[in-house]
Amino acid sequence: MEKNQLASLIHKKLTGSMHEEDRKKLEDLSRHREEHALAQKFEKTWEKSATYKSNYQPDIDRGWERFKNKMQSESSPTQGTSKVKVRKLSWGWAAAAALALLLGLAWWQMGGNSVNPVAANSYSTGSGEQTSITLEDGTEVVLNQNSELTLTSDLSQDGERVVNLQGEAFFKVQPDTRPFIIYGANVKVEVLGTAFNLRTYEEEAFSAVSVTEGLVQLTDLQKNAGIKLEKGMQGTIYTDGKMTRHKNDANVHAWRTQKLFFRNTSLAEVEKALEKYYNISIEMPDVLLSCNYSGSFDNKPLQTVITTLEASLPIRFYKEQGTYRIEGTGCK
Asked: What is the pLDDT of residues 66-89, one digit of tens each?
């Protein structure tokens, strides 16, 4: 695939300078699955840059070279630089990041140094991907699959440290006198220095924070009301305005640690944990609600977990049309 050509065509499309011949070339390239997905990533990156100037003509080759040099420097970071570690990083994400570098170059070349280029910086993951990030202020972030973290302020400068999250991530916030603020789906999380997990997918009917260290303020942006959470506590805000506060779920960090732990846990809770961790759907009759299970699994495949549960409880798993069904006579 001609990466330079695709980037140049996308730039012309987004700035309204595309001619009919260019449009046909882009259509031909976009017929291929990889190129189509990459074009979408480019456009999404551009949409995040409200200050991108349409009269800027990017030097595509120079931009790609800068991108490659940046990636090489981040693979062996020095003290005081931002470090990024990516698991299963797709080339498409990297290409979108390259476009972001071109946009950043535009700001400075066009004299727009009053605009903070970090506004377009974002980290995203697809299905089955996780990304570990160290931000400029020293805050460590682990981004779960199908998630996106966007920096809306320069974390190395004075003032509030502000980011946006769509999805799920674990934060270990660098202690500082400046607040660290995360905006999610209708919620706001504010801390000074702490560690916690935030789950805030727009398609889900809730946002939840589970605190590992320190104190966290969770606020419902629609009601302008919230709750404070200390170590070991979880707070959940639902889209209907309901708020709950309780002890952390034992498996809230399973997506990050690859460990599942159950201690006399109801089969209903085991079902929920398996659905979330393995991204599957399970159906279970009420007669099995009386069953409890104790045990742990360390990075085990789903079939191993199913076999273990079937050997420990009077149940059987069946798979039909992509959904797992549990059957059994119940537990005494």
From this structure: 555 544 544 444 333 333 334 333
pTM for this predicted structure: 0.61
Residues sharing a CB contact under 8 Å with residue 58, sequence separation 6 or more, in sequence order: 7, 8, 11, 102, 105, 106
The phi-psi region of residue 68 (left if phi > 0; otherwise alpha if psi is between -120 and 50; otherwise beta) is alpha
Q: Residue 326: phi, psi to the nearest 5?
A: -100, 130
Tell me: pLDDT of 277 over 90: yes
DSSP-assigned beta bridge partners for residue 325: 283, 318
- Residue 318 — very low, low, confident or very high, per pLDDT cuts 50/70/90? very high
Whole-Å CA distances, 61 to 8, 209, 245, 254, 322: 10, 43, 53, 42, 46
Residue 89: C-alpha distances to residues 93, 95, 112, 198, 222 (Å): 7, 11, 31, 22, 35
**Would you say residue 22 has pLDDT above 50?**
yes
List alpha helices for the chain, DSSP H: 3-14, 20-30, 33-47, 60-75, 91-109, 254-257, 267-278, 302-312
